[in-house]
Amino acid sequence: MKKFFTIAFLLCASYLFAEIKVGALLALTGPASILGLPEKQTLEMMVEEINKNGGINGHKINLIVYDTQSIDDEARKKFIRLVQKDEVKIVLGPTTSGESLAIKDLALQYKIPVISMASSDRIVNPINKYVFKVAPSDDHAVQTIYSYLSANKKVKVALLTVQNGYGDSGRASLLKEAKNFGIEIVADEKYLDTDKDMTSHLSKIAAKKPDAVICWGVGPAPAIIAKNFMQLKLNAQLVMSHGVASAKFIELAKDAANGIILPAGRMIVADQLPANDKYKAILLPYIKDYEGRYKTPVSTFGGHAYDAIQIVQQSIKMGGDDLASNIEKIRGYVGTYGTFNFSETDHNGLSKDAFVMVKIDNMKWKLLK
Amino acid sequence: MKKLNLFYLSFLAIVIVLFYIFVDNQFYKSILIYIMINAINASMLNILFGYTGVISLGQAAFYGIGAYTTGILTVHFGCNPLLTILIGILIASFVAFLVGYPTLKLHGHYLAMATLGFGMILYIFFNEFSNYTGGPSGLVGIPKLSLFGFGLDNEDKFYVFISIYFFIFSILLELFDKSYMSYKLKFIKESEFASKSFGVNVSRVKLIVFVLVAAVTSLTGSIFAFYSGFISPVSFNLKYSIDIFIMATVGGLGSIVGGTLGATMLTAFPELITNFEDYEMIIYGTLLLIIIMFFPQGIAGIFKKFWGRYVKS
């Protein structure tokens, strides 16, 4: 009898103190580190809070973060490490599109759900039962930009896109959506995100006399473009992608950032939202916690991590071991970027309303319209 | 003619077999697969630089030619996988010939710059030729290799395949090291003028070695493409060329075990210290610095110093 109690006690204890292992693959170094760092900080903050409140269904979360160095192959290695060595149940990230595509097949092979924080459509299309993403699609961002530009009669557009997974997929969207909005593309230039000077690209573009220049990139390069753009005194509206929606960009571009418009999540303009906006209630507490803890301004990328961990939390709460099927059942989750409605055929769950147009004015974000 | 280093070969075989039997975790197997791939690339560079004295910072490009030939031909044209490996080797050899013929007349820094430029051109090509290469976001959906009806669809099976490839490669490497050819190459490295005066056709030998090394690197690239199932230009950029260069240097230039030792160390070590997070890079850098400063002969040099009788190079 005594033995029975001991075993029963041990079983209860192991159930109560069991951890849920959650892996994260983030680009903490390399060109995408501007994105990876706020994601890591947000995850650590959220996990600490969840564990302080007793975990999920009584289980504490054990977060394991690996740096992918913004390299596709490294993400692949680290994914196998998370799944095989650390035996995680679910993987958050990777940060960039290329890394996410690199592990897409592995997720299916090992049957581990992946919640990517990158934006490329190819991550969820064609659909893979185990791969989800929380970042809005490029199509949504492009539609937001184009409807703003065509409303303001700026129809001659030049493109300047970065040569990586992010820029590639943005460029594809920009080219695809152009005719739906009556936009004429007059130049289509590309740059490498290690380039240190873009005046030659911009001079070529200037010759075509566009009304607007759309730059699609992340990291320090867009800031260089903004500076070169100012030095060349180009007479056009400079439009950036949502990839630069962090305070780091303004810090790098300094006053060259003024006047730039971009589509962005509501996070950076949360205080300017109308009082009855349903996202305001979520964003303000997160911003207060984050800025209070890390003493740096929030960026929308941290918001992706916030959404990802909330989705993990909801899917685990539903019970059962099949987390991928659980995520497919999540409807109406109000996140930092919009309302997520996942389904078996939609592993992103966001719609065009994820974006608002934002202008940088006097080195501050300003909500347009 | 020296005797073959049977100790080293049997040691390799035992380690590979024991690892297969006792290690169940696929993560460790995947690390060993990467080690073997890197070891082959680093050993080939070692022959080029350590033996012949031809510096090349464009090896990743040949690796990429193999991987992309296989990727493009299988994904877009549905070719027979084994055939694509062969086509990759032919293309890489041809490109190596075209590049090597004029550039191998250069020496030292100039040759380094030329090969570096070649690597960059190929990197841009992989990015820009996006209708076929998939551009910067990569090529998805490369089928798994299957040999004689056995599909190599998981780490276990692939481990067996790459082990056999690696072991055969190691035997060939060992045979090369003890052959007349390796002395000829070392002679060229010592002094091109002296070897010329002894009747060695220096430029021809260098070109042959360059083409052969490119062919083997391309073969390894094709195998990598089958293993990974996904390739993107980032895997074949300058960083990878420099990585294998460091592996060969740290392992020991001019020593046949150098490439393997360096690859083992530099592939496994970052995985071991991942848990230190922020200090990872500092530890890694310090280690490289110590080896280069105090052991210019690389790890193979350390072994030779202490256990000279076992690892005669």
Automatic annotation (TrEMBL), chain A:
<dbReference type="InterPro" id="IPR000709">
    <property type="entry name" value="Leu_Ile_Val-bd"/>
</dbReference>
<dbReference type="InterPro" id="IPR028081">
    <property type="entry name" value="Leu-bd"/>
</dbReference>
<feature type="domain" description="Leucine-binding protein">
    <location>
        <begin position="19"/>
        <end position="356"/>
    </location>
</feature>
<keyword id="KW-0732">Signal</keyword>
<dbReference type="InterPro" id="IPR051010">
    <property type="entry name" value="BCAA_transport"/>
</dbReference>
<dbReference type="Pfam" id="PF13458">
    <property type="entry name" value="Peripla_BP_6"/>
</dbReference>
<dbReference type="GO" id="GO:0006865">
    <property type="term" value="P:amino acid transport"/>
</dbReference>
<keyword id="KW-0813">Transport</keyword>
<comment type="similarity">
    <text>Belongs to the leucine-binding protein family.</text>
</comment>
<protein>
    <submittedName>
        <fullName>ABC transporter substrate-binding protein</fullName>
    </submittedName>
</protein>
<keyword id="KW-0029">Amino-acid transport</keyword>
<dbReference type="InterPro" id="IPR028082">
    <property type="entry name" value="Peripla_BP_I"/>
</dbReference>
From TrEMBL, chain B:
<feature type="transmembrane region" description="Helical">
    <location>
        <begin position="108"/>
        <end position="126"/>
    </location>
</feature>
<protein>
    <submittedName>
        <fullName>Branched-chain amino acid ABC transporter permease</fullName>
    </submittedName>
</protein>
<feature type="transmembrane region" description="Helical">
    <location>
        <begin position="207"/>
        <end position="232"/>
    </location>
</feature>
<dbReference type="GO" id="GO:0015658">
    <property type="term" value="F:branched-chain amino acid transmembrane transporter activity"/>
</dbReference>
<dbReference type="Pfam" id="PF02653">
    <property type="entry name" value="BPD_transp_2"/>
</dbReference>
<keyword id="KW-0472">Membrane</keyword>
<feature type="transmembrane region" description="Helical">
    <location>
        <begin position="281"/>
        <end position="303"/>
    </location>
</feature>
<feature type="transmembrane region" description="Helical">
    <location>
        <begin position="158"/>
        <end position="176"/>
    </location>
</feature>
<dbReference type="InterPro" id="IPR001851">
    <property type="entry name" value="ABC_transp_permease"/>
</dbReference>
<dbReference type="GO" id="GO:0005886">
    <property type="term" value="C:plasma membrane"/>
</dbReference>
<keyword id="KW-1133">Transmembrane helix</keyword>
<feature type="transmembrane region" description="Helical">
    <location>
        <begin position="35"/>
        <end position="62"/>
    </location>
</feature>
<feature type="transmembrane region" description="Helical">
    <location>
        <begin position="244"/>
        <end position="269"/>
    </location>
</feature>
<feature type="transmembrane region" description="Helical">
    <location>
        <begin position="82"/>
        <end position="101"/>
    </location>
</feature>
<keyword id="KW-0812">Transmembrane</keyword>
<keyword id="KW-1003">Cell membrane</keyword>
<feature type="transmembrane region" description="Helical">
    <location>
        <begin position="6"/>
        <end position="23"/>
    </location>
</feature>
<dbReference type="InterPro" id="IPR043428">
    <property type="entry name" value="LivM-like"/>
</dbReference>
